[in-house]
Structure formats: C-alpha cells, structure tokens
Design brief:
Oligomer: single chain
Number of strands: 9
CATH topology of the largest domain: Beta-Lactamase
Shape: rod-shaped
Largest sheet: 6 strands, antiparallel
Radius of gyration: 30 Å
Structural class: alpha+beta
Number of helices: 8
Helix content: 40-55%
CATH architecture of the largest domain: 2-Layer Sandwich
Strand content: 15-25%
Order of helices and strands: EHEHEHEEHHHHEEEEH
C-alpha cells in the first residue's frame, strides 16, 4: 500500500503514481492519493492516473484507516484471484501439452474443425495423409483447400454431424488423394472432430475390413478420453 500526497516537492504524487503503474513490479500496488485540492477535476485526474482512492485533507484518522483496510482487502482478494487464474492457466497449459502429445503419437489422422469448417487442429497423421504441413491447413476452410470433396459422402456426413449434433461413421472416397477412408466424426460445441483410422483401400480395391459402429464408438472413447471437445454420443449412425 502506498499513501502519497499530491503536493510533494520534486516528484508530486501523480508523477509517483504514474511511475508505479509503469513498472510491472509495482503496477498492482494499491495507491491512495492525499490532497488539499477539493475540486472534482483533481479527483478525476488522480483516479484516471490509476489511483485506487482519493482522500481530501484534512481527513479523519478513522476514515483513513477504514479506506486503507478496505483497499488492502480488495488487493488481497485480487491477488488471490490472480494466483488462482495463473494456477488454472498453468494446469490447462500442462493438460493441453499432454493431450497434444497423445494426439501426435496417434498414427491415425485427427482433425478438429470449427463451425465455419476451418481447421483448428490437425495432427501429424493428417500431415502424412494429405502431404501438407499443418501451417498450410490451420485457419483454412476444408472445402476450399479440397474442393473435390464438395458433394461427396464425406461432406454430406460432416454437415449432418454438425447440423443434427449426432456422431457418424462412414466410408469416404477422396478424389484428390485417390483413396477410401474409414471416417469417424463427432460433434462438438465448436464444430466437429474427425478421425480417419486408416486407408481402407485404393480407388480400384473392393475389400472392406471396417465396422462403422465399432469405429464410431472407438473414436468417441478416444477423443473424449484425451479431452477433445465433444458431446456424449446418442447413437452411431451411418446413412
């Protein structure tokens, strides 16, 4: 806590206040300005400069103590809230690092799209599958990057997942890549999460070795376990 008189010699109270607020080490220290200037303009000037309170002289000692006590209580509450926020942020960052490590270790392609169909996350599996680096994908609209996908079963199913808020498991042929994928998609508050476990077959292959219901269930379990934003599945549907 700093109590300072505005009318100090050399450096007045306002100059001291501004210096305290500029320094990150002292910027959060509560400051009460004392002054004989009773005008509203002087009071507003002090508060705009960052003062926590403004007290006119002469003042009652009990009033000063009450204001000091109150400001210290507020400062303590703010410090506690800041420490809690920092702890939560650190915990969230650590969790995000763990989740990212898990996602990057998965060989299957994992994609997270927002409601505008922009990539918000891709793992290394998607980089390998598409032959594109993630910086080429993030923030871009999937249908603009892969226009040949428009009108495919994959687009229809993805849009249904988001609009109907249901999971889906389906096979999709990628004209641009020339392969079939087993895709599991699940809705999230921000869009959709997609998982392409493996290439089913080349364009001219006929074998099918994949169970849609089983894959959708697995995708939900894995994505939910590692903290991807998703709703609980209602029913795995393949239309």
């Amino acid at each position: 806590m700093v109590l300072t008189d505005i009318d100090m010699p050399r450096m007045d109270g306002l100059a001291l206040l501004r210096a305290l607020r500029r320094d990150p080490r002292t910027s959060s220290i509560p400051v009460i300005l004392l002054s004989r200037q009773a005008g509203e303009e002087s009071r507003v000037e002090g508060l705009e400069a960052g003062a926590d309170d403004y007290l006119l002289k002469p003042f009652d000692t009990r009033e000063l103590l009450a204001r000091v006590t109150r400001r210290l209580e507020i400062a303590s509450a703010n410090r506690t809230a800041l420490e809690r926020e920092q702890a939560l942020r650190k915990s969230a960052e650590e969790a995000e690092r763990r989740y990212t490590t898990i996602l990057e270790s998965i060989t299957d392609g994992i994609v997270v799209l927002d409601r505008d169909w922009r990539y918000t996350y891709v793992n290394a599996g998607i980089e390998r599958t598409t032959g594109r680096r993630r910086y080429e994908l993030l923030g871009r609209v999937i249908w603009e990057l892969f226009p040949a996908e428009v009108g495919t079963e994959g687009e229809r199913q993805c849009r249904r997942v988001v609009s109907e808020n249901v999971p889906a498991a389906f096979e999709n042929y990628s004209p641009q890549l020339g392969v079939w994928y087993a895709v599991s998609a699940c809705p999230s508050e921000r869009g959709a999460s997609l998982r392409a476990p493996r290439i089913l077959r080349s364009a001219n292959a006929s074998s099918r070795r994949w169970s849609p219901a089983r894959s959708a269930s697995g995708a939900y379990f894995e994505l939910g376990l590692i903290g991807m934003p998703s709703h609980r599945p209602r029913k795995a549907v393949s239309r």
